[in-house]
Amino acid sequence: MTTDALRPRQRFSGDGWSVDIHEDRDLEIHTLRGEFDFAVSAKLAELLPADPGARRIVLDMTEVAYCDSSCLQILLRLGTRLREAGGRLAVVSTAHAVVRPIELLGLGDVMPLHPSLAAARASWGEET
After folding, report:
1. Where are the beta strands (DSSP E) in the chain?
2. Exposed/middle/buried for 37, CB within 10 Å: 0-12, 13-18, 19+?
3. Which residue has the higher pLDDT, 118 or 7?
4. Is the model's pLDDT at 5 over the cut of 80?
5. In which band, very low, low, confident or very high, does the pLDDT at 109 lie, cut at 50, 70 and 90?
6. Which of 24, 52, 68, 123 is the most buried (most CB within 10 A)?
7. How far is CA 68 from CA 35, 56, 116, 127, in A?
8. Per the domain annotation, does 49 fall within a domain?
9. Is residue 1 part of a domain?
């Protein structure tokens, strides 16, 4: 049984991809699934907050099979805007398609990678 807190408050999907948005305590969690390429990038940009303020957002990308540079750029912009406003971004994934480009491009300062939500919370000094 899914509790109301874990039930997505917004769900978006297209051909081969989906984004669910829900809150877990004080975090806004965006769960991305599928393949994110140039054809999806404009829609992804619409779904993410343009002015996120000082929120803490987790991108759960554990089920992402592909993420190209156009979508990474959109996620990087979100991380930069959050950082400038005093917010934080974390990327949760161990998927090669997500981890490798972030590490190769040195984006870890703006888009820190974590293997789990618990690890992301711990990096912010929270107990799970």
Report:
1. 10-14, 17-24, 27-36, 56-67, 88-92, 113-114
2. middle
3. 118
4. no
5. very high
6. 52
7. 9, 24, 22, 33
8. yes
9. no
